């Protein structure tokens, strides 16, 4: 269900998208971001901030969002870019890429958080707590989170022993112990404290 703001923009025939990212905090893997333009004629029940949803619920909503959205795009910033420009700037880069990949003209870009990525093909609005307020940002948060989780499950096969499929790269006790035992992999973020310490 659209928020009050989203309904007003819809009534005024403005095209707007919601944008969010996933994976800023983990010790390894890329940062993912998604941009979504929802269809007001095809409401999606159960949308919420991806962090507030169970994995099963996210997985159930994921194909529905893709099926019902008018447009969506998922983009990323790589581990190398995170280490080069820092994770905050990498988040902005991934979100900008996601929005620019949408195959339609955008009037307004609603971004979760207090910063706006650049460049944007429209007027940007930062929304603190937007992933709990705006349906389009909720949908974007789910796509970004699920796509990243899927990649971490695949990377678990390439780099076994770290538990990536379970903790998705976050700095859990299991992950930190594996880092101490096995050392960092090419997908670990060298600029992050626990990894940087092991690399000397």
Q: How do you describe this structure in short?
A:
This protein has helices at 4-11, 55-68, 79-85, 87-100, 135-158, 164-167, 173-182, 193-198; strands at 16-22, 31-37, 71-77, 108-112, 123-127. 44% of the residues lie in helices and 16% in strands.
Topology:
Elements: H1 4-11, E1 16-22, E2 31-37, H2 55-68, E3 71-77, H3 79-85, H4 87-100, E4 108-112, E5 123-127, H5 135-158, H6 164-167, H7 173-182, H8 193-198
Parallel strand pairs: 1-4, 4-5
Antiparallel strand pairs: 1-2, 2-3
Helix pairs in contact: 2-5, 3-4
Describe it.
By secondary structure, the protein is of the alpha/beta class. It has a single domain (4-150), classed as Ribonuclease H-like superfamily/Ribonuclease H (Nucleotidyltransferase, domain 5, 2-Layer Sandwich). The chain contains eight helices and five strands. The protein has a five-stranded mixed β-sheet with strand order 3-2-1-4-5, sandwiched between helices. Strand 1 and strand 2 form a beta hairpin. The termini are far apart. The model has no long low-confidence stretch (mean pLDDT 96).
Which tags fit this structure?
Nucleotidyltransferase, domain 5, 200 residues, alpha/beta, 8 helices
**Uncertain stretches:** none
Helix/strand order: HEEHEHHEEHHHH
For CATH, the homologous superfamily is named as Ribonuclease H-like superfamily/Ribonuclease H
Radius of gyration: 17 Å
Main sheet? 5 strands, mixed
CATH fold annotation: Nucleotidyltransferase, domain 5
Quickly count the helices: 8
């Amino acid at each position: 269900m659209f928020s009050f703001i989203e309904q007003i923009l819809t009534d005024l025939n403005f095209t707007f998208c919601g944008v969010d990212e996933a994976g800023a905090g983990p010790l390894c893997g890329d940062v993912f971001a998604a941009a979504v333009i929802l269809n007001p004629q095809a409401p999606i029940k159960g949308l919420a901030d991806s962090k507030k949803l169970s994995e099963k619920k996210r997985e159930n909503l994921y194909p529905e969002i893709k099926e019902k959205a008018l447009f969506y795009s998922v983009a990323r910033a790589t581990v190398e870019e995170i280490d080069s420009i820092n994770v905050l700037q990498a988040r902005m880069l991934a979100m900008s890429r996601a929005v620019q990949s949408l195959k339609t003209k955008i009037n307004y870009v609603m971004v979760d958080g207090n910063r706006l990525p650049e460049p944007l093909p429209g007027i940007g609005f930062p929304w603190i707590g937007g992933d709990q307020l705006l349906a389009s940002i909720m949908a974007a948060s789910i796509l970004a989170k699920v796509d990243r989780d899927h990649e971490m499950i695949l990377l678990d096969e390439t780099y076994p022993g770290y538990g990536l499929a379970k903790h998705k790269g976050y700095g859990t006790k299991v992950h930190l112990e594996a880092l101490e035992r096995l050392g960092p992999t090419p997908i670990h973020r060298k600029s992050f404290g626990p990894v940087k310490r092991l690399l000397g």
